[in-house]
Amino acid sequence: MNVTFALATARRILTQLRHDRRTVAMLVLVPSLLLILLRFVFNTEMAFSAAAPALLAVFPFAIMFIVTSITTLRERTSATLERLMTMPIGKFDLLLGYAIAFGLVAVLQVAVATAISLTWLGLEIDGSVLLLLLIAMLDALLGTALGLFVSAFARTEFQAVQFMPLIVMPQILLCGLFAPRETMTPVLEWLSNVMPLSYAVEALESVTRSNELGGTFARDLVIVAGSGVLALILGAATLRRRTP
């Protein structure tokens, strides 16, 4: 791993994003706008506080997944990756650079959404705000890593979008957002247990409900972070220079 190459890639991506204000606005503001909409759908702070923690994991995860997968695919189809890989840069260095750049955007995205939720929208939590931010950021980074991974298997932007219902939607449905995981059928509970978003939601709910966090919370953090690292490694292993 070459940190210099990774940072140079991150700087290039951030420079491109700086000139694409619409994409930046979507990345930073859409989760907050969705949470604002949800607050007025529930119309009570109590109901919003019950649902919002899970959605602080779901919204950044889904948005970072789709944006990252399409952006990476576009760079491959435009032969940008092919030109970059003629240089002495490793595949993992390249994906790490993408992860750093989009990770910084994810930090801003989650910080804005959390700040709005805790102030204007009346989200109430019993645990640490910093831990809440940490988990939500890890989940956004997980979405980024998975987006980088699946982009290797898509040939067009339309195919990249099709990974959304395949990778993201099952995790949203089975993460415990709509029904407790322990009440699901054995097969669905097993599927939920192997999906990293379930542990991100569980960790966020633990933080919002209590100041006392034990081994389960630490396990959830390790699983979410480890899943992101694993997705980056698999993405580097499957990365192609260009789409045929």
UniProtKB/TrEMBL annotation:
PROSITE patterns: ABC_TM2
InterPro entries per the UniProt record, alphabetical: ABC-2_transporter_component (IPR051449), ABC2_TM (IPR013525), ABC2_TM_bact-type (IPR047817), ABC_2_transport (IPR000412)
Domain of life: Bacteria
Single GO BP term: response to antibiotic
A Gene Ontology molecular function term of the record: ABC-type transporter activity
Keyword Cell membrane: yes
Keyword Membrane set for record: yes
UniProt family annotation: Belongs to the ABC-2 integral membrane protein family.
Name of the protein this chain belongs to: Transport permease protein
Organism expressing this protein natively: Actinophytocola algeriensis
